[in-house]
Design a protein that fits this description.
alpha/beta, Rossmann fold, 2 domains, six-stranded parallel β-sheet, four-stranded parallel β-sheet, globular
């Protein structure tokens, strides 16, 4: 048994890298649905169907616990999956909650009523589908009151990253930050609500300025999973080698992943 990590493409590798560093004794199986990326421009039913297919493939690999290392899937599919689709004995977790718990300075699993928090103005950068779902605002409302969220759909950024065009991706980041700042000139914090965006974190920080606290997901998700596995050791998995699956061309995806993460990753067909 291993822990599964699902993403629409390459972005989830930023989360996987943090997971591998924090939990070196836990085996992971990564599934990238590169043939169908990006998810951020798809409708909710399409995202749900594709996510379920990918999660089922990870179950076939022995992953009873699967992390949706994709904000679009977490936003558009996770709640529906948990309420009506995930069978007993399996677990599917998303990446929004660890981020919001850090933003609101809550301990993991703190389910007390929502309260006032220090941060009042939050800029959310995410895919169009994530923004449309309003899942971030919904989860935030469970934990905090009095927080103004301005969401910016960052069209084109994921496509540029997946194609390896980081110059275009950086230009798009600056354009999207400028668009948001016209509506919210002085955010207290910025949330990078897509697991591709840590690859552009320096560009976001440069465009936002040093006075804005930037929240990125990989390390927060890794810390949250470590806490979860301490409370649910039966989901931890046994010793084994990490594996990397893709619905795309394994050689091409492996080359891109190696370039992004600066270490060799060999994919096999999903």
């Amino acid at each position: 048994m291993a822990v599964g990590v699902f993403d629409s493409g390459l972005g989830g590798l930023t989360v996987l890298s943090a997971l591998e560093k924090r939990l070196p004794d836990v085996p992971f199986v990564y599934f990238g649905d590169n043939a169908n990326t990006p998810y951020g421009v798809r409708d909710a039913d399409d995202i749900f169907a594709l996510t379920c297919t990918g999660v089922e493939r990870l179950w076939d690999e022995g992953c009873d616990l699967v992390i949706l290392a994709c904000n679009t899937a977490s936003a558009a599919a996770l709640r529906r999956m948990q309420e009506s689709w995930v069978p007993e004995g399996k677990r599917v977790l998303g990446v929004f909650v660890p981020l919001i718990e850090a933003l609101t300075e809550r301990q993991w699993g703190d389910n007390s009523p929502p309260r006032e928090v220090a941060i009042k103005h939050v800029a959310l950068f995410a895919t169009p589908a994530t923004v449309q779902s309003r899942a971030f605002q919904r989860e935030l409302a469970f934990r905090a009151i009095g927080v103004d969220v301005e969401a910016q759909p960052c069209g084109g950024v994921v496509d540029a990253i997946e194609e390896g065009d980081m110059i275009l991706a950086e230009a798009l980041v600056h354009s999207h930050v400028a668009a948001l700042k016209r509506r919210m000139p002085r955010p207290d914090a910025a949330v990078l609500g897509c697991t591709h965006y840590p690859l552009m974190e320096e560009a976001f920080r440069a465009a936002l300025g040093p006075e804005v606290a930037v929240y990125s997901q990989p390390d927060l998700v890794a810390a949250s999973l470590e806490d979860y596995l301490m409370r649910h050791p039966d989901m931890r998995g046994a010793d084994g080698e990490n594996a990397y699956l893709t619905t795309g061309d394994p050689v091409a995806v492996g080359h891109k992943a190696t370039w992004f993460l600066r270490r060799k990753i060999d994919f096999r067909p999903a």
